[in-house]
Amino acid sequence: MRRLLLTAVLLLPALLLPAAPAFAWSALGHRLVGELAQRHLHPAAQAQVAALLAGEPAPTLAGVAMWADHLRDNDPPRFKATSRWHYVGTQGSCQFEPARDCPDGACVIGAIETQRRVLADRSQPLAARRDALKFLVHFVGDVHQPMHANHQPDKGGNDFQVSLRTDLQPEPYARKHYVDGVMGTNLHSVWDFYILGSAGFGTNGAALQPYADRLDAQPWPPLTTPLSAPVAWAGESCRLVDARGLYPPGHKLDRAYLDAMRPLAEQRVRQGAYRLAALLNETLGR
């Protein structure tokens, strides 16, 4: 009975926690994708990116990587209109059915395809092509986060509540759920923030360059799907959910889960960066 009561106490913060924002990766993860991709742009694509992002507060791929999420605060109507562009959910399996899973192109697969066409069309206004680039940087990161291409009926892990024992301080919006070293959260947020954030580099801007240097020193990861096929990237993410056991058998996690999953998370960041660089080289490098 005492053990049951203790378990209930540990899970209580998670059970009371409302669904966290459905971001993929944290600011650190998205900026890593942008930073690594920019390092591998061809000169022509690099020049186009510089021209498109001229005037941005941080005119780099890493600097604009969180723009699509920041619309939540900076332009709520636009965020609401584009919120379905961040993910794709299939039903019961990883078989993608566009009419069911992406009506009117409103999913991360459709958004990548649409924004790439806008970016490639040089007759489009500069502002439209700039926004398309910023969307692409973010959505290519999103589609490589397994919780954003998931067949489980739990909103990408947002409804899978966990208690996570961690020394990593949560983001400000969630700090009231961090009690005595235990964070009441959900599996989506574990993949969004804690796996990469607990790597030892920190979670703020100072963490970006040393973490990117370490990841960039490794060979580019193996790529088993076409460079410019977002439907294949999403399927790859979805299959990893089951194949790599991303859902824990219980609802109590600690550093062992974060350490075990970090190599996969880092591989997905690197794969996303490689594909983003290839996509931009092909689209802008002409």
From TrEMBL:
Which InterPro entries does its entry note? PLipase_C/P1_nuclease_dom_sf, S1/P1nuclease
Q: Would you indicate the residue range of the signal peptide?
A: 1-24
Instruction: Give a yes or no for keyword Membrane in this entry.
Output: no
Any transmembrane segments, and where? none
Q: Which SUPFAM superfamilies match?
A: Phospholipase C/P1 nuclease
What UniProt keywords apply to this chain's record, in alphabetical order?
Disulfide bond, Endonuclease, Glycoprotein, Hydrolase, Metal-binding, Nuclease, Signal
Q: Which Pfam families match?
A: S1-P1_nuclease
**What superkingdom heads the lineage?**
Bacteria
Q: Which PANTHER family match?
A: ENDONUCLEASE 4
Listed name of the protein = S1/P1 nuclease
- What organism does the record attribute this protein to? Lysobacter koreensis
